[in-house]
Amino acid sequence: MTYYSLVTNTDTQLDLHHIDDDACLKFQGAVELVGKRWSSGILLAIARGSERFSDIVSVVIGLSDRLLSQRLRELEIAGLIERVVVPTVPVQVRYRLTPKGADLMESLQPLASWRNRWAE
Amino acid sequence: MTYYSLVTNTDTQLDLHHIDDDACLKFQGAVELVGKRWSSGILLAIARGSERFSDIVSVVIGLSDRLLSQRLRELEIAGLIERVVVPTVPVQVRYRLTPKGADLMESLQPLASWRNRWAE
DNA sequence: CTGGATCCCTATCGATACTG
DNA sequence: CAGTATCGATAGGGATCCAG
């Protein structure tokens, strides 16, 4: 039986040939979590320094406030971002990446490179 | 076109400020492409050696043949997999990763590691 | 400024049945 | 085996209006 070799160089990489079914589901879940519409754009915006609600809306092209609100809740539940309320008048709300979220963004860097590599 | 890095060598701090809007959209597009429902599971199944239609259905839990058919077309159009028809009786069809697709799977390994690192 | 609530529309999905 | 066709249900999305 022959199959594609996905493991090429370093030993730190995962060997996808021996992933069990549970890991398969986890992998799928992880990709679909961040792959949901607008999620990655929102995360990227926050990672780039857009901490405010209105900032994110203006940075992520096409994103509506309703969807942003919804996604922010999902991302917070997923533990990727944290919501910080500053009790001023009016109230200020800031969003930042959690360590888990920041680690995720780092892990997505190879994907960004891939997109760049295969851009036509 | 400026090549960029999501992570600087400075510290744990992310430096994404020099990413232009075009790259932002590309990044979002790349994540959402592979993050579509079932797509990653199908790619992983093929990467693990499931070349046949029925194999993929049985390996990816919950996936219906209709959706598999649809996703396979999308992934083929995206240039991630190739469809090989062997003219026997009955016809055999095999799917495998293209170099672009294999490269993608390698680029997703850090994400799999991330999922593993932050599993509770 | 930061959303919540509502309406409505479309895309997408799962199930079922069918074909070469 | 490797799909296609059809259909009803539903989830997701855009637009709009409203509130603390």
Task: Supply database-style keywords.
disordered N terminus, homodimer, DNA-binding, Arc Repressor Mutant, subunit A, two-stranded antiparallel sheet, globular, 2 domains, 6 helices, 120 residues, 2 strands, mainly alpha
Indicate the topology.
Two copies of one chain form a homodimer.
Chain A: H1 21-35, H2 39-47, H3 53-59, H4 65-77, E1 81-86, E2 92-97, H5 99-107, H6 109-117
Antiparallel strand pairs in A: 1-2
The structure holds a DNA duplex (20 and 20 nucleotides).
Task: Walk me through the structure.
The structure is a homodimer of 120-residue chains. Chain A is mainly alpha-helical and 120 residues long. The first copy, chain A, has two domains: 1-35, no CATH class; 37-118, Orthogonal Bundle (Arc Repressor Mutant, subunit A), CATH 1.10.10.10. The first copy, chain A, is 52% helix and 10% strand. Chain A contains six helices and two strands. Chain A has helices spanning 21-35, 39-47, 53-59, 65-77, 99-107, 109-117, and strands spanning 81-86, 92-97. In chain A, strands 1-2 form a two-stranded antiparallel ribbon. Residues 1-14 of chain A have low confidence and may be disordered. Chain A binds a DNA duplex (20 and 20 nucleotides) through α4.
